[in-house]
Task: structure prediction
Amino acid sequence: MKAITGAANDTFSAPSARYTKPQLVSLVLADASSPAPAGTLEVVLTAIRFAARDTNLYTFESPTGAVLPAVTPGAHISLKLPNGVERQYSLTNYGADLTDYTVGVKLDPHSRGGSLFMHNQLRVGTKIAIDAPRNNFPLVEDAEHVVLIAGGIGITPLYCMAKRLKELGRSFELHYSTRSREDAAFLKELQEYPKVHFHFDAEQQGKFLPIADIVANAPPNAHLYCCGPTPMLAAFEKAGEGRPAGHIHIEYFTAKYEAADEGGFTVVLARSSKEVTIPKGKTILQVVRDAGVDVPFSCEEGICGACETRVIEGTPDHRDSVLSESERKQNATMMICCSGSKSPKLVLDL
Result:
């Protein structure tokens, strides 16, 4: 997987839906489905709060009030929604003793059932299953300086990072771009932070955030993070080409590459003592699961990292947005939901 001066957005005073145990359960649409499957956690939606235009904050807690698995800044969780759709969202909070997880969700006008369902049908009191937090976008907490660049809903993981860096007293700056002031989540909170620069396109004659200038002006040893729409990420990657690869951090919301489904190679599953042929039109993940091998997966787009698998032999055709260039060159692991093979045979630790 995500900046000003002036008055705070008054819409932040909008009321939030709040769950009170147990009285409110009968007043909301609760999910009475069976417990979460193995490898997942069961949580209950306890609050929906307004964050910005078309953006809500959703808070989930354990139904028993138990402490949830620890979270580091930049982490995300995968929500298994009641309509059968599974989506990944960055967490806005972090810690080792959390009793709740909060994610920000912007309504996508082209939603395929994730944000649309959450905005229009998900109700306080609903129980859902989630995967434990995973972090493919970790914060380097001891960096000399950190530059955070967010676009739209891409602010969610970077807001979490900003909170952590402020807590640690580290040097950082945040550049946050949205189309208008009304679209900026956490506006009121971020106005209290030092070195936070907002960019509203509507107030800049339609000019976009000058990413190239921001990157060029960053200290040589700075670590830079970017999360936002695809054009912003592409501009950020281009601007950062002259910097150390390990200092450029990026998180995608959508697949960066098309999945490899050309087929025509063999995959040996070392631990399962099975060998399968990948036909045209199928991914490794699909064929492996069809062969009866249980493999964790979530996004099937190469952006969440859930299906990362160790490569024992062969050369993967990497199509994910998780591994760095240096990790790809090592060919030690691959995302089997979207990546293929450049060699006739792959041997995987499955």
About this structure: Residues 1-38 have pLDDT under 50 and may be disordered. The CA atoms of residues 47 and 65 lie 14 Å apart.
